[in-house]
């Protein structure tokens, strides 16, 4: 996330891989705080005030080392109500909220929700679930659009189940990146570039059955898919690459999904791995990811694809997310959301 620096406060120990014995079930928890709940530096005193001032200085110095001069007066610093983390933001980024993940009581990850100051679109890092993945990191590509959607009863009547609700338990994110015209010749031949532009589309989806009114609604299936918006596939020329791919898990635990052409790439941290595979039975331009298992924890999956489209065309994608919950005696409930262009 451009322009945002996170400094971990010393009040909570940071977990290490050795924090839990092999085979132990790690209990994860996510606390989410909107901007209104965050404490600005002006309200802090004593040691906390000093740490927040140090975070501001570190932010300015870090940007200076990368050739970006930031006015210290324009840098905002915030901490959560328990002062576990400190966030510094500048370069036009506005903090909308902080998500803090813990595993077995240890601070294990932080997510930042923010938007650029000259826009009204809010972008979000993934909630810090086990894996604690962030948003895609592009090299050479430019982010053209991003957003998210929380599935509600209005989207899918399956959310309204007798005796409880699964509202807000399914969420979908997307990021869309374009390769600048000036960079195309670095990695593509003249014939490949002729009449074409190059884009990468990234998706993330998560679901959680644990916090519904029906405690113990286990998540057993989670799928995300994307494809060209209905009626626009004629503007697409080629699906160049997609990850994950195939009917078997093809990922590395703690690793990344990556779409790369020469020196230019988009890298996306993975939240889940071993039980995630590429979505099957997809159309020629469709991609996605599928998770199968049984868990009461928040589960997140990711997928990406690279496209060649007609020159001058900005591709539009239709998104789909599906989650199945095992709700005991009441059976299984499927929750889904699709764009109108699906």
Biggest sheet descriptor: 5 strands, antiparallel
Global geometry: flat
Rg: 21 Å
Helix content: under 10%
User: Termini separation (Å)?
Assistant: 29 Å
Strand % is over 45%
Q: Please, how many helices?
A: 3
Order of helices and strands: EEEHEEEEEEEEEEHHEEEEEEEEEE
Strand order within the widest beta sheet: 10-13-14-21-16
Task: List the domain count as a whole number.
Answer: 2
The structure class reads mainly beta
Mean pLDDT: 78
Total beta-strand segments: 23
Low-confidence stretches: 5-26, 119-132
Keywords: Signal
Signal peptide: 1-20
Task: Describe what you observe in this structure.
By secondary structure, this protein is mainly beta. It folds into 2 domains: about 40-115, no CATH class; about 150-340, no CATH class. It is about 10% helix and about 45% strand. It contains 3 helices and 23 strands. The longest helix is centred in the first third of the chain and has 20 residues, at about 45-65. The protein starts with a strand and ends with a strand. Keywords: Signal.
